[in-house]
Amino acid sequence: MKKVIISSWLILALIFSSFTVVSAEPSVQTLKVGISKDENGLNPYTYVTGYPGLDLVNLLYDNLFHLDKDNKPEPWLVKEYQISYDVLTYEFKTHENVKWHDGKPLTSEDVKFTIDYFNQHPKSRFTNPLKTIASTTVKDETNLTLVLSKADPNFMLQPLADLPILPKHIWSNVTNPDDETNALGSGPYMMVEHKSGQYYTMKANSDYFKGEPPIGELIFPIIEDTTAMFNALQAGEIDAISTSISPELVNQFESNPSLKVARGPGYSTTLFQINAEKYPMTEASFRQAIDHAIDKQNLVDTILLGFAEVGSPGFIHPSSSYHNNELNPVFDPEKAKQILDEAGFLDTNGDGFREDQEGKKIDLTTLVYSNNPIRIRTAELVSEALNQVGIKNTVKAMDATTVDSLMWPDFDVSKGRDFDLGVWSWSNTMQLFPDRMVELFHSDPAVGSVNIGGYKNAEFDQLGEKLKNTYDETERTNLIKEMQAFVAGEAPIVPLYYQEIVNAYNPEKYDGFVFQVGKGIINKLSFVGGEKPEEPVVNDETDEEEKATDKDTKTNTDTASKNNSGIYWIGGIALLVIVGYFLLRRKKEKDNNQDDFDF
Amino acid sequence: MGKFLASKFLQYVIVIFLMLTLNFLLPRLMPGNPLIFLAGEDVGFMSSAEKEAILEKHGLNQSIWQQYGTYIKHIFTGDFGYSYQQKRPITDLLMERLPWTLLLTGLGLVISTVIGVLFGTISAWRRGTKTDANLLTMFMFLSAMPSFWVGMILVSIFAAQLGWFPVFGAEAAWSNFKGVDRFIDIVEHLVLPLTTLVLISVTSTFMIMRYSMLNVLGEDYIMMAKAKGVKEKVIKYKHAMRNALLPVATVFMLSLGFTLGGATVIETVFAYPGVGRLMFESVLSRDYPLIQATFLIITFSVVIANFLADLLYPLLDPKVGK
Amino acid sequence: MEKQKWKRYWNVISSNNLGLLGISLLVIFLLIALLAPLLAPFDPTARVGAPFSKPNGDFLLGTNDIGQDILSELLYGTRVSLLIGILAALISIILGCLVGIVSGYYGGKVDSFLMRLVDLVLVIPFLPLMILLAAFIGPSFWNIILVISLLSWASPARVIRSQVLTLKTKGYVEAARSIGTSIKVILFRHILPGVIPIALSQFVMAASHSILIEASLSFLGLGDPFTKSWGTILYYAQARGAFLTDAWIWWVLPPGLLITTLVIGFAFTGYSLEEILNPRLRKER
């Protein structure tokens, strides 16, 4: 069923990806989008989270390229570009009429300055991808050439579609960017106010080079408690939220006539992390048994109520073009037992749990964040499954920072690790850049910077090295597929699921949201005018119905929330009347000495 | 008398010093460090040199003694430093949160004291009657409910379902309301959290007042006044209530000390921007300077309130003063 | 003589409606806790139904987020919540008695040192210490009890100290001291019996507080998510959206009401105990 929905999503997305020009009048006065955390200053150095923090930054700043809703880079500030055959020289021509929020023109000088500045003042996300740039040459105001020291297959994604361009006339005076508070960019919106812990306001940049943005004023109230956030959306106090709706509430939101739900695959990966450095997890057979013991489909059905994709054993999300289709999730407890038996993990003392190959007791601990009930439940079910095949383990929930300090001390894999098993999760960037597979499993800490399980295998390292020096797209895809097959067989991690992203918003207020795969509706494309996909959000079959009801209710736009309370009033009064009626009836019946109640 | 106060004062200074040290040690004893909150999500892709630079910038690679020295020095200069996570001066953060916390918990304390005193007097006066029993049962029932549960049920019914009150926050700040409109907006946001706070905290004042009133009513001079035929109202309010208020006043002073700490649970339920919530988050994010500052404020105000209560007690109660 | 005294207490309690109600509530909960396996239709840890089921014939209060029967969870939860309340209160009262008696009886430097310690504990911010301990040893059933009792012995200690001070001036204690009776005998014969009734009422109050504290800690996510207390049930209900759907009627109201009822049971009992101890309150007007 789930698969059907996703594939229909993809097909529809293809059909509707034809572009039309939407006339750019500021159709919406104010839009309130709830976010769950304060993001500090919204400039490229001080924002906090990758989502939605960086997406808010991108409303204020522009990049040379921008990821479209399928995460393919498309030109943004760049008007025309040429790439040499050896993929080393990039020539750009940027749009002429781009202005900073203070009216000064954005030129190639600013682009060059940005590259230099990030090299001088490192901010790892933006600085690291700049390392391959050998030279930056400004030809004139709009023409610019970049020469790379060696080809970089991800160059279009990062830095080109990721690096926000900074205004030279402002940042050239900034010596300590981490404490910088200004957020003056060239983007479709301008920063108006930030009240820490309370809200951000932005207003439309009417001079924007892609046309005036569709929303006059954007307000981002900060609501840390998710229940309060959902309540506020339902009560009409805010019009959209950045947080994905929890699985148990999707039906509730879908049946709410004043809200529209946009669903799609999420790229955040929840997995079962194994410490491959510690015996018995050093044994491939032991890890394979763990993989076979866990029923991933059951996790998706029970905990996420189906709003997730079952984890692919090779880590890469099935909707990614790099996904290895030949790999299927495994679940076979009998096979798990058989593998353990054959490898010599037997229950020699008859306590119901297996001892290791030398007859010593195995008693493992599964770590999980205590602030995340879905992950706690996941850990509970996984732990139960392992106990059932005879791998003794208990779940321990601890606060996030503590778990991090055990599984990934100082966020530096070279500092070792102190755990057995754990429920872990990687954010969506890991799926956006499939070659991060290398960083996940390479044995050298300098390369495998997120190999938190300490997995070591020379064969995989070789594949990684090979990928680094491969530039041909099909060859790269094949290598990544090979790596997935390798990971699936070795099971240094067990991918459990990719939780679906479910966004909800009030279409009466604004219906121009664009669902970016793996991310959701809070992205730049949702808030700019000009070119837009004709059908911004397509979820599933119920969508058409929803639209019909939308039209019907269109007349009472602004009084919607008030009418709601009216409905409750009427409901309450009706209830009183009904109760009163029954009481009266009962009394009457009593008076008539009729004892037979027939309801 | 002076000697007594001097020794009390010294004792409180020692308590404060111990608390300061505890405030410093507690966060550092917690496992895990604030690196991810300092560096953001990119921390996994940083080189160790970059991470080292961040730690150095915040003085976190110094020895624990050096850090302690700086900490004490900063307290005396009133410099709370920067919040790791919010990257803003802590004084600013506190100044933003304190008014809301004072509004909520301060007003809550005053209202629940007034209600508690009033009903406590009535209850004691009508000792043994049905009114007394009903009041007693009702107030004990109130204090038996978990605060977050009351709060969430109030939100569900009055905010989410009926839409009479806003569901979150202290004001719709982005609306730029002025004057009366702003006042109304703030009151609307305050009603539910304040109600919750009063509901769960009113009982202690009620019980203390009732207890103390019963004690006073048993005193000889009240008996005598009754025998002399003094009017009931005069006995009740002039003689009994005034004397019975003493323990309530002490408790009020002590609770005053805790108001600055806010009410973490209620602030969480209503997403109210108070100090209690700030403290809770600072602990979760290992925001050392912020933890220290919020604890410091709470400790100071509690200790000062205690000291004031010691000072005031003899003034209020002639029996102790002699 | 002792027996008569207790009998008199019982007479007062049973003649007092609130006290009787309180004690019967506690007895009922005790019975539920003991008989949970007989009363509960299911094993509370077994996933017996579809997640988020509404109440129906099989599951009177529906199922929780992973399909466990909520009614069975609640019945078994009585054990945990009651145990947390009683154990935490017990530890804190024993600590409080120890500190209170030593402090009150010996006086002087010991007294002022211990009372400063009490002052210190009374101003320690509760929450961070809880997180700290939970982080160190992981949030577990015992740690929650430990934290609650470590932070709530201070005010009983004060109350007990003042009772000891009063007892010390009583004629028979002074007499015993003047004829050189050993400290041990004085403490156990004369002081302790005078302290026990107060300690008992403090215990009952502490138990009701502990239950509420446990619920609040669980709500903030600082409890042990694998111990099925009423607080934990509320945590999952809250975290999995029960407040936003109709589920609050069967998933949120019942545990909250149970907590309230149990706490009231303790509070009523404690209140009538206090009435017994303060004869003046008992005097008819």
UniProtKB/TrEMBL annotation, chain A:
Occurrences of domain Solute-binding protein family (ranges): 72-442
Keywords carried by this UniProt record: Membrane, Signal, Transmembrane, Transmembrane helix
GO molecular function terms attached to this record: peptide transmembrane transporter activity
Transmembrane residue ranges: 566-584
Ranges where the record places region Disordered: 532-558
GO annotation, biological process: peptide transport
A Gene Ontology cellular-component term: periplasmic space
Pfam families tied to this protein: SBP_bac_5
SUPFAM superfamilies: Periplasmic binding protein-like II
InterPro entries assigned: Peptide/Ni-bd, SBP_5, SBP_5_dom
Signal peptide, first to last residue: 1-23
Biased amino acid composition, Acidic residues: 537-547
Name of the protein this chain belongs to: Oligopeptide-binding protein AppA
Gene behind this protein: appA_6
UniProtKB/TrEMBL annotation, chain B:
Lipid bilayer topology: Multi-pass membrane protein
Subcellular location: Cell membrane
GO cellular component, one term: plasma membrane
Pfam families, per database record: BPD_transp_1, BPD_transp_1_N
GO annotation terms (biological process): transmembrane transport
InterPro entries linked: BPD_transp_1_N, MetI-like, MetI-like_sf
CDD domains named in the record: TM_PBP2
Keywords of the record: Cell membrane, Membrane, Transmembrane, Transmembrane helix, Transport
All copies of domain ABC transmembrane type-1, residue ranges: 98-309
Gene3D superfamilies (UniProt xref): MetI-like
PANTHER family: OLIGOPEPTIDE TRANSPORT SYSTEM PERMEASE PROTEIN
Listed name of the protein: Glutathione transport system permease protein GsiC
Automatic annotation (TrEMBL), chain C:
GO terms of biological process kind: transmembrane transport
Family of this protein: Belongs to the binding-protein-dependent transport system permease family.
Pfam families found in the cross-reference section: BPD_transp_1, OppC_N
Statement: the UniProt record of this protein carries the keyword Signal: no
Domain of life, per lineage: Bacteria
Domain ABC transmembrane type-1 as annotated: residue spans: 78-270
GO cellular component terms attached to this protein's record: plasma membrane
Name listed for the protein in its UniProt record: Oligopeptide transport system permease protein OppC
Transmembrane portions of the chain: 20-40, 82-106, 113-135, 141-160, 191-213, 248-273
Electron transport found in the keyword field: no
Keywords: Cell membrane, Membrane, Transmembrane, Transmembrane helix, Transport
SUPFAM superfamilies linked: MetI-like
Predominant location: membrane
Compartment(s): Cell membrane
